[in-house]
Amino acid sequence: MMRAMRSSVLTVCVLTACGGGGGASTLSSSAATGITPLGVAMPQAEPIGWLAIAPVAVHGDEVPYWVPVDDSAALLFLPEGSGEPAPERAIRAVPARGEPVELTFGGRRAVSYGCEDNALNALALHTNDGSALEPGPVWILPDTDAAATWAPHGLAVKVAQVDPKQRAWEVGSLTVALTVKDADHAVFAISQGASWLLNRNLERPVMAGADDAPIDLTKDTPGMPEVAAAFTMASNGSVLITLATPGYEGTSLSTLLYDGITVRDVEAMSHYLYSCAF
Fold this sequence. Notes:
The protein is an all-beta fold and 278 residues long. It has one helix at 145-148; strands spanning 8-13, 50-54, 74-76, 90-95, 101-112, 119-127, 136-140, 153-154, 157-163, 166-171, 174-182, 185-192, 195-203, 226-232, 239-246, 250-258, 263-265, 271-274. The model is unreliable at 1-41 (pLDDT under 50).
């Protein structure tokens, strides 16, 4: 499982902001999209929630390699002393497929992961009936007045294209694409109809002794993300896209929010899963 190391992002360029200073673009599409824009960008301070992972009891070929093995319904990665909720508190969680479920917090545990006795420090989450969730990302909803108005659920992710030079996914009305530029660089983009919402130039990280063959997007390639899951708030049209980016020593999980106006990173919904030294 020698796949990890955080990915390297050289340039972040939200289209229409690229020729001037920084800042988020307010580009929006006038085409019919099936998403009702908020009309204004969601405030940066508005809590979106946290990212957990639904593990599997036994790994199989159909499960992403980075999903942990455990008997809990989900694993939440919060630093110790970060104000973790009381064990008896019920929370709302949204699996990658389906409607929200109610989970309760169990104890903190060390989950074996990777090699060399490596373990992930996580809070175990459980369903009331002990049932399992769809393996992969799980959106943990914040306990806020705003979140109480959402009608969240998992969104289907359709793989639209996979070849050595390009990968593409369809998430509702959004298209997510990864396109190879040269042997070590690619472009990650999100579009909606004819409107480009996000464009990021990516570089494969350098590691001594690693395979230096040109990027092949039919394989797991360090620094090259893929869509792991997607969610919607439904009531306001916002979409969350969770990415899994392999590296040389682990996997980076990150989440983007599209609120109908802008696309931005959700720092609270990211985590690095260290697995094994290269």
